[in-house]
Specification:
Radius of gyration: 14 Å
Distance between the termini: 50 Å
Oligomer: single chain
Number of helices: 3
Structural class: mainly alpha
Largest sheet: 2 strands, antiparallel
Shape: elongated
Order of helices and strands: HHEEH
Number of strands: 2
Number of domains: 1
Helix content: over 70%
Length: about 90
């Protein structure tokens, strides 16, 4: 694994851990786990690209802008949780 594959896999694993931890903390049905994983992956990627664009070097791990990527993942997770809590109930 050389080049770009290793950082992508590492970032994917970190974002997956964030989403799984969030689901462990807040619980819910399996569909919430899927939503949390998607939100975490998306937020992590957007946060990383924003960190690259703004040249944020705080907690930079190799080519991964870990601080901004983690912040993006957790913001996306909180937004997804807020959206779940505010969805109309089905009857």
């Amino acid at each position: 694994m050389t080049g770009i594959a290793a950082p992508i896999i590492f970032a994917f694993l970190i974002a997956t851990a964030y989403g799984a931890t969030f689901h462990l903390l807040f619980g819910g049905p399996p569909r919430h786990l899927i939503l949390y994983l998607l939100a975490s992956w998306t937020g992590f990627a957007l946060g990383h690209f924003l960190g690259t664009f703004l040249n944020i070097t705080l907690l930079k791990l190799g080519v991964i802008h870990l601080f901004s990527a983690s912040l993006g993942a957790w913001v996306a997770l909180l937004i997804s949780r807020w959206l779940i809590k505010n969805e109309p109930s089905r009857q």
